[in-house]
Amino acid sequence: MSGKVLVLNQDYSPLTVCTVQRAFLLVFLEKADLLEADQNEELHTVSTTYPMPAVIKIKNYIQVPYRGVVLTRQNIFKRDHGLCQYCGIDGDLTLDHLVPRSKGGKSTWNNLVTACKACNAKKGNYTLEEAGLVLKRPPFKPSYIMFLRNNLGAMKKEWASYLNAPAVA
Fold first, then answer.
1. What's this model's pTM, rounded to 2 decimal places?
2. Contact, 11 vs 61, CB < 8 A?
3. CATH 1.10.10.10 corresponds to the domain 73-131
4. 3-class DSSP state of 33
5. What is the mean pLDDT of each run of 10 residues along the chain (169 residues)?
6. Where along the chain do its domains lie?
């Protein structure tokens, strides 16, 4: 009974991803409704067969104070797909401030990019224009839904309509 299940709030907004065991328990205890079942698998007991949850909806609305993506080194790497944003290679990576901290640059989503050590050293304490470098893609702050959709690995086809994305698996 392995796998992941998309959990939606009462208003159908994505809340989190949980294990099949947790999702089944929420449905069984009538704390959540089963919206989508995995068509290829079922859960079996000695006497009963249950559908394998793929998407569930919590019955009581859960107030989430802030649902954003935390600015961390790993999340910057995920946003940039583990590639240097200057040359495109995928090895020996670090973070680079577009506007250097010595020139007032802050550690924000829009000022940090993934860079290989060679490009980071070439850029040094300069701005992009001063160093003569061009970004492959401008930095941005990902939304929670985008982050869920892009960083969970293979997304189940049952999740696509709830995350507004094309299905992967």
1. 0.65
2. yes
3. no
4. strand
5. 85 89 96 94 93 96 81 92 95 94 95 96 93 94 76 74 62
6. 4-66+144-163, 73-131
